Task: inverse folding
């Protein structure tokens, strides 16, 4: 069975960048969301195996998504991919349960390292 | 739609380049002020010059404005305005970690603005394989006519401009600063060409 992936970013370009960086085993069943609200709508109704999440977004931002997942006890590995690289932001994100924080522009090696350490590779 | 309008894809691409640059600029600001900087989605709009001054006026709750020109390869250039909300001199010195009389208020504003502008634009430039040089930052009066004159003095054609606005909010100090980048019409087509090159890869 393929791994179900959700990519949430308000930028079409950024979504494509993530999609293009995914290894083959993660790129067959991918859904896209352009803000936190869209992502939550999907996550509340479907089983998703891994979420790639941007932070600075309209409607509901990445922190809002992480908080909602925590409140609603929706458990899945979340990899945050963000340009907001302040150490405090990284701490906040990890405290809210994200598995990894990846800086934009995303480095392929770093992504693969994190995927490997969480058993996706 | 005119020749200076961005397509949806161009707008999206520019916004993502700006996101990465503002992320790093805010990281610098956060380290400099030893605090956390709250970021919002930046706004990008195209304005006609007569409306540009109206729109700046609308934005102008600022009491201090620092202006700095930037010039890259391939005709990428413009003017960065750092607009600060009211802040008294001793408070700023405290924020920046200076002794009260170490630097004048003007020097402190220029110092901080230069860090933000150059960090932002250096990261922006590196993403598009470009390199920026800068004019000396200048503290402007907040009088709109002075700003208007200052912008008109730059040897650009300002009938149309691309206006990018980025807000940096330091909540625990109630310190707010808007960075407004004004890109004159002759540079817009150059930026569009660079963006199209990036988009062609996708």
Result:
């Amino acid at each position: 069975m393929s791994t179900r992936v959700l990519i949430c970013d308000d930028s079409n370009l950024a979504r494509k960048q993530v999609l293009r960086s995914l290894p083959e085993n993660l790129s067959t069943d991918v859904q896209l969301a352009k803000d936190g609200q869209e992502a939550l709508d999907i996550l509340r109704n479907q089983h998703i195996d891994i979420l790639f999440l941007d932070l600075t977004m309209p409607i509901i931002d990445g922190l809002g998504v992480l908080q909602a997942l925590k409140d609603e006890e929706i458990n899945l590995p979340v990899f945050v991919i963000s340009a907001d690289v302040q150490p405090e932001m990284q701490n906040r994100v990890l405290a809210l349960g994200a598995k990894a924080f990846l800086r934009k522009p995303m480095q392929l090696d770093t992504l693969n390292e994190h995927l490997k350490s969480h058993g996706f590779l | 739609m005119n020749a200076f309008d961005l397509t949806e894809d161009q707008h999206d691409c520019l916004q993502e380049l700006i996101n990465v640059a503002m992320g790093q600029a805010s990281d610098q600001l956060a380290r400099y002020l030893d605090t956390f900087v709250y970021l919002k989605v930046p706004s990008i709009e195209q304005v006609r010059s007569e409306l540009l001054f109206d729109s700046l006026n609308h934005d102008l709750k600022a009491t201090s404005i620092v202006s700095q020109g930037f010039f890259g390869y391939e005709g990428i250039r413009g003017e960065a305005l750092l607009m600060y909300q009211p802040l008294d001199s001793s408070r700023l010195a405290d924020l920046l970690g200076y002794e009260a009389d170490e630097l004048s208020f003007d020097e402190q504003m220029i110092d901080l603005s230069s860090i933000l502008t150059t960090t932002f634009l250096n990261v922006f430039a590196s993403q598009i394989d470009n390199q920026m040089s800068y004019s000396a930052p200048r503290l402007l009066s907040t009088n709109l006519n002075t700003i208007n004159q200052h912008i008109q003095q730059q040897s650009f054609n300002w009938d149309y401009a691309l206006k990018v606005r980025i807000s940096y909010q330091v909540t625990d100090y109630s310190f707010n600063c808007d960075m407004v980048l004004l890109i004159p019409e002759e540079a817009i087509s150059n930026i569009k060409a660079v963006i199209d090159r990036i988009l062609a890869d996708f």
